[in-house]
Design a protein that fits this description.
about 170 residues
Length: about 170
């Protein structure tokens, strides 16, 4: 008859857990991006004031997707960057002449989009990436309003406030 040593099993289980934790890559914090109306209309992208207080990062790239495909991206050339701050805002479509970018697909009213900003942290508290969701919400007068979807927003029949108001 073979008996098992319970302390040996516990020790093996503990060692396995420690080894798995050591080889698992650390989950990097994803910071809060902010989407707002740009100076020429349409969305523009930055980091939240809270993220700026936590520490700045250097901008590397920005992209927008609709959950199925990437609609637009803009990247800094190697070796170049600028500090991210709440006061700066990168417009959708990349109307920043000095930065390489892809063509931008037209954004549609009532669809949810995901923003992703890649960055290089300057401090241990700064995030290496930032994300937000947004849409263009059609108003009663037919105009479009840039609407950021915050984490407390619940999906409803109005799709986070992205669909036209009911009459």
């Amino acid at each position: 008859m073979h008996t098992r040593d319970p302390s040996g099993i516990m020790l093996a289980t503990l060692l396995t857990a420690i080894l798995m934790a050591a080889v698992r890559p650390a989950q990097a914090r994803v910071g809060q991006a902010e989407v707002r109306e740009g100076p020429r209309g349409g969305p523009c992208f930055t980091i939240s004031p809270r993220e700026e207080r936590l520490g700045t990062s250097d901008f590397q790239a920005v992209s927008v997707s609709d959950g199925r495909r990437q609609l637009w991206t803009m990247r800094m050339p190697p070796g170049r960057s600028f500090p991210l701050s709440f006061s700066m805002c990168v417009p959708y479509g990349g109307r920043v002449a000095a930065l390489p970018r892809s063509a931008s697909a037209a954004l549609e009213a009532g669809r949810v989009y995901t923003l992703h900003i890649d960055a290089r942290p300057r401090s241990h508290a700064a995030a290496p990436s930032y994300e937000a969701r947004f849409c263009l919400a059609r108003q009663r007068d037919g105009s479009l309003l840039v609407h950021q979807i915050v984490s407390s927003d619940r999906e409803s029949h109005r799709l986070y406030g992205c669909l036209p108001p009911e009459e």
